[in-house]
Design brief:
mainly alpha; two-stranded antiparallel sheet; 16 helices
């Protein structure tokens, strides 16, 4: 793809059409993306959101044009630095922290995430920590609109997810960010996020674990694991994935590209698929804490608990691996973002929804990479051969996205 002369407007159109259009986000999108376009249209020409969003749009267009967003020649880089300068200028002016400033921080973080994905390196997330400080100031203002709620929840979601992956603690105050609003939403994602916040703090408590604290922490880990099990039991029925077998539902091209064991799962959307994979990763982490506690306890019952914890970890890892075909289809090389010749697993005669061709290409690789990286950290806890299979799929993702 050759970039057009008016590449800035073209990049914006590319981003809006393929990443945040109603068809791409559906009713199951998590985070802040649903509120982005309305705020963008109202933002002033001096708003930090304008250069920050341009950085993301240009980086994504470059990535899909087989250019490198990490290159010093990247057209996205100047927008990124302009966004940082604009945020600093806004803070120095002591103006209110409005939705556009928070969304600008999230866009700067998204840009960093794109560069990390394309460069196959960890996403450090410095702008996430900066967003938390801005939120503390924002809490002094009323949050009266759905857009403001979604923006705050988007920041909170990034902070909690970042802490979970990095084994960092999270302040419980994050759960109060929307209490200033009447009728704050209590979606399944938000309910899960509240539990994940506690899982993140549980991991921190397990660092430097001693025998004196092991029994108490074991009880906390088991209680959190049971809450995660309970969340899964009461989530919306349409979120329950379909597990499929056989050549009619799983074409040969998908099986050859990457099928772990002999089955895979189909989900309501790429967003619900990732939510369930985050849930699985969170349960894996509680089970890892349980295993760590058992190492410090001389309990004859502990042997069976240890066997059960390991079996659960392996089952949950299998569940994440089973979602790979839904994310990647039969892609093994670079394809257009809107390529509808890609084959995905399906149930019976049901065709793949048009929106899935876009969302799977746009978000599937980035979502899946985060979860597979977490599985690789399990090392010897995985089933024999599973680590090699995951590494193979990571290599496949790098070929698909040329990263």
């Amino acid at each position: 793809m050759v970039l057009p002369q008016d590449h800035e407007n073209y990049a914006q159109s590319f981003f809006f059409n393929f990443y945040i259009s109603p068809a791409a986000l559906s009713n199951h999108a998590r985070g802040f993306l649903g509120s982005l376009y309305p705020v963008w249209t109202r933002a002033s020409s001096s708003s930090p959101l304008r250069p920050a969003l341009n950085a993301v749009a240009q980086a994504l267009l470059e990535a899909w044009s087989f250019s490198d967003p990490n290159s010093s020649q990247s057209l996205a880089r100047p927008h990124y630095f302009q966004g940082i300068v604009a945020v600093r200028r806004h803070l120095e002016s002591a103006e209110d922290i409005d939705d556009d400033v928070l969304l600008a921080m999230l866009m700067l973080d998204m840009y960093d995430g794109i560069r990390s994905f394309c460069g196959a390196r960890p996403h450090e997330g410095p702008h996430v920590r900066g967003s938390a400080a801005l939120i503390e100031n924002r809490r002094k203002l009323p949050v009266n609109s759905k857009t403001s709620q979604e923006t705050l929840l988007g920041v909170r979601s990034r902070i909690v997810g970042d802490a979970l992956n990095k084994k960092e603690s999270v302040s419980p105050n994050l759960l109060t960010w929307t209490t200033s609003t009447q009728g704050s939403p209590r979606t399944p994602e938000i309910e899960l996020e509240a539990i994940i916040l506690e899982v993140a703090n549980l991991q921190v408590s397990a660092l430097g674990l001693t025998a004196d604290f092991a029994l108490e922490l074991l009880g906390k880990a088991d209680a959190l694991d049971q809450r995660l099990v309970a969340w899964f039991a009461i989530m919306p029925d349409e979120w329950v994935p379909s597990c499929i077998w056989g050549p009619k539902s799983i074409p040969r091209s998908i099986r050859e590209a990457g099928l772990y064991q002999n089955h895979c799962t189909i989900h309501k959307s790429i967003w619900t698929a990732d939510t369930l994979n985050v849930h699985s990763c969170s349960r894996i982490k509680t089970r890892q804490v349980i295993l760590a506690c058992l190492e410090h306890l001389n309990d004859p019952v502990g042997h069976m608990t240890r066997i059960n914890a390991l079996a659960t970890i392996q089952d949950l890892a299998d569940t994440i691996c089973a979602s790979v075909p839904y994310h990647l289809g039969d892609r093994v090389e670079i394809r257009r973002i809107d390529d509808k010749s890609v084959q995905y697993p399906c149930t019976g005669d049901n065709a793949t929804p048009d929106a899935h061709y876009i969302t799977a290409a746009a978000y599937g690789g980035m979502f899946l990479t985060k979860r597979l990286v977490e599985l690789l950290k399990l090392g010897p806890l995985l089933r024999p051969g599973q680590q090699q299979w995951i590494l193979g799929q990571m290599g496949r993702i790098r070929k698909i996205y040329k990263c």
